Amino acid sequence: MTDSKTYVSTRNACKLCAPLGASLVFKGIEGCVPLIHGSQGCATYIRRYMISHYKEPVDIASSNFSEATTVYGGSQNFITGIENIIRQYKPGVIGIASTCLSETIGEDIPGHIRHYMESHEGDAAVLPIFIHTSTPSYRGSHADGFHNTVFATVKALARHEITGEIVTVFPGMITPADIRYLKEILEGFGLSYVLFPDYSDTLDNEYTNEYQLIPTGGTTLSAIKSIGNSKAVIEFGNRFNKGIHRIKDTGTLQTAGEWLESACYVKNNQMPLPVGIEASDRFMNALMQLTGKEMPEKYRKERGRLVDAYVDAHKYVFGKKALLYGEEDLVTALADWLREIGVEPFWIKDADFETLREEAETVKPDFLLGNSKGYYIARERKIPLVRLGFPIHDRFGAARMHQIGYKGTQELFDLVVNALIEYKQENSPVGYKYL
Amino acid sequence: MVYILEERQKQVSVAGMNERTIDCNKASLAGSVSQRACVFCGSRVVLYPIADALHLIHGPIGCAAYTWDIRGSLSSGPELHRLSFCTDLQERDVIFGGENKLYGSLIELIDKHLPKAAFVYTTCIVGVIGDDVERICRRVEKEKGIPVIPVQAPGFQGSKKDGYRVACESIFKLVGTKNRPVPAKSINILGDFNLAGELWLLLEYYKKMGVHVNATITGDGRVDDICNAHNAALNVVQCSGSMSYLANMMKDDYDIPFVRVSYFGIEDMSDALYDVARFFKDEEMMEKARQLVKEEFARVMPQLTWYKERLQGKKAAIYVGGAFKAISLVKALRLIGVQTVIVGSQTGTTEDYELIKRLCDEETIIVDDSNPVELSHFVKEKRADIFIGGVKERPIAHKIGLGFCDHNHERKEPLAGYEGMINFAKEIYATAMSPVWRFTRE
User: Does one domain contain both B233 and B329?
Assistant: First the structure.
């Protein structure tokens, strides 16, 4: 890893804005409709971006600021927005994300919410729950927006009453298929758990024959409330984007898990995203410790098959160089995994794609590992791009990819090995059919 | 229609005698989940295809990231437009101002990429923090000797349509700044964005007629051609929602007349050719146009008839950005036996909607600035088989089990011209006739 910033401008950004991360978390709450407090474009762009990746409905409301709103404040638009969402969607929750515009003009969203609740005191029973997250685009990236919203939601809803048997998992930005797999593992250990956010159904739903205004699925409100009574938390990530440049002291930033530990006496187990055998073992060990149970046979076998595959294919990957990009938590986890199989990882903190492209001239990677947007670099260098993460706009089935645990590692490993084999085959004058 | 918000009731109408005029040209309603974007988006999509210009977004990262390489606007030469440049404003810039960052970004990027001009898009926060973007642009223009044009596009200052006007004003600043000799019978093509290479089909047609195409604005666009655009004899304007402003300004200041055309569907496409020949009052040109149309009809009609026989009775819903395109689509669909039962657009005008009302069969739902709640109800109510729209409409179609045709920025096959009509029919056929619907109707 190197750290370089030679350009003043950002050229082909390798990040998205914070309200997108917030919207993703809100899609993981049952009955929730996200509202972006700002201009209409913010909601529409984020919808388009997420729909193209997940191929699912993504309804996000906007308070649709006008010039007058910007000058006189957004309280009226906020109320209109809330009321129209309630009329059209009848949501259980409205998740409100701020934008650079509403933050800059000093919108008091908690105040707006309070006023709205006060003026509807009589009908409290039918009002949705409001969750608010501060996500100006000028502070961090979509990854920050994601973590901040997990934190804001937990802080707003979770209450400690009595420590129970629940284990809470904050998996971070993983795929819907990963979430399903994770739940299967947790169930395999016989755990009662809360996993948040859970967009495994809302963003990868079955065919419904109707346009569900609020897609089924998501972590329930009661489950989120019960997080305060967890006996332990498992939180994936090792950076949580705390390293970004802020005016505010980064030391005061907390993750949801850290907050629970300090406010609700919940043991927090922070660990890297489980990609690779070592990281997955660490996760499994934590589950074994928490439950006092052995790893279920099924996962022992998955692990065994993965080791077997590592052995069978080790020479295809050994000594290769990979250029990585994406969210820091994902990239650092991938880097550890690649070292585990003998691939040399290369990434640049906070780099944009043009910086990566220029660095690739010297690094000469054998393949790229990351989302769709690095494709142009792979194309220029005539090397493979193994797609993972978000967004994948040029391949099908992004929501169904596994990227974590033994199973996810197996899928990734097969993809990497086959990409390298295919590259060799395509570039060979012989045309081997047997490799 | 109880599911339509009260404030939006007047933006929905039904074709038929004595129906009231639809409300349009309004700001989207908060909380309605409009399919529209913002002023910035409007300006960005129009200017984006100018391939040898630097497009720098002065603002936070989201606005730049979501519009990176966003439209399939192809270039026959430079591809600078496909890169995304942004000042990526941070918290400290919002507090202390972003002017230095803007200046530094412009200088380094112009030095590196040597563009013919630079467009600087201002976004919501820049509209609020009060950076003097005009001053920085003037300074860099002087230092670097290329036009540096501020595109004042804070998202909140209106709707997507206002962004079109902002873009046209920016383009107009270039028009008239260079003079090159131009043949007498020359046109500018306004409002084709060369998605999937559609512009190149049109150039081929006009060439066959002996018409010289001067500037293409903005598909496969070049700064120098735009600077010289005032020397054409006629502006041929498609996508009139976005380009009427420019056509009007060029008419007022340079006395260049314009015709409104559409290249979608073979009738409108043919009219676009005849209109140009008629304008030049050139019988030879007209004869060539007739010949071209005759040949193309002979080629495409048998194919279209084949599709028509099979698609007869299918029903379509249309929801697109501009209403003028919707009008062409209704006609094109009719040609292949498909009846339109819903027509809507994000930015249509009263005249557009009146025309649609006259064009469509009775009972067709007409809607302005719609949303998923309404659209999903409409298609169920009207039992549509196919939806024609953009990315955001696709899940509405697919979750209800309707076929879908992407007629937006992201299409990869040309849908304009005669060739495009065949592609369109092919796509409608593929989506209507797929065997997979068997499982959705179980």
Answer: no
